[in-house]
Design a protein that fits this description.
This protein is of the alpha+beta class. The protein is built from four helices and nine strands. The chain starts with 7 loop residues before the first strand and ends with a helix. The model has no long low-confidence stretch (mean pLDDT about 85).
C-alpha cells in the first residue's frame, strides 16, 4: 500500500530569525485559527517578522504574528495581532518550556505552511547571534554566491 504524503506549500518564512539567531531545533506545530484567518493565510497575507512564542498556562502561544483581515470577512474578522494557540503534545510543550527557560534561548516562528489541508507552523528553539556572528554568516553567504557565480560562468562555455 502506498503512503499518501501531503503536499506542503510555504506561505511565509521568517528570514529575520535566521539572520538574528542560531536555530538549534525545529518543531512542527498546528495553529488554532478561525475561518476568515485561514482564508487570509491561504492568500499569503501574514507576517512573521517580529513574532515570538511563549508559554502560558501549560500552552504555547504565538504573539505578534500579523494576519491581515480577510477582505470579504466583514464582521467575522478578528484582530490581526491577536494571540494564537499552538497545538503540540504535552510532552513536547514541557520539553520546550524547559529548554526555552535556559538563559539565551527563546521560541521563534520560522515559517507557516499548508500541509494537506492544515495550517502548520515551524517553531524554532533559537539562540541569539552576536554582531560578529552575523558578519561571519554574511561573509559565508557572499562567498557561496561568488563560487556559484564562477561555476555558472565556467559551465557556460
Amino acid at each position: 500500500m502506498a503512503e499518501n504524503k501531503a503536499a506542503t506549500r510555504v506561505l511565509a518564512s521568517n528570514k529575520k530569525a535566521f539572520h538574528d539567531y542560531f536555530v538549534d531545533e525545529k518543531i512542527e506545530a498546528g495553529l488554532v485559527l478561525v475561518g476568515t484567518e485561514v482564508k487570509s493565510v491561504r492568500e499569503g497575507k501574514l507576517n512573521l517578522k517580529d513574532s515570538y512564542a511563549t508559554c502560558r498556562g501549560g500552552e504555547i502561544w504565538v504573539l505578534n504574528m500579523h494576519i491581515s483581515p480577510y477582505e470579504k470577512g466583514n464582521i467575522f474578522n478578528r484582530d490581526p495581532l491577536r494571540e494564537r494557540k499552538l497545538l503540540l503534545h504535552k510532552n513536547e510543550i514541557t520539553r520546550l518550556v524547559g529548554l526555552s527557560a535556559q538563559p539565551g534561548f527563546s521560541l521563534v516562528p520560522l515559517s507557516v505552511y499548508i500541509k494537506g489541508s492544515r495550517v502548520k507552523m515551524e517553531l524554532g528553539l533559537v539562540r541569539g547571534k552576536k554582531l560578529y556572528d552575523k558578519r561571519a554568516s554574511l561573509a559565508e553567504k557572499d562567498a557561496k554566491r561568488d563560487i556559484a557565480r564562477a561555476v555558472k560562468e565556467r559551465n557556460q562555455y
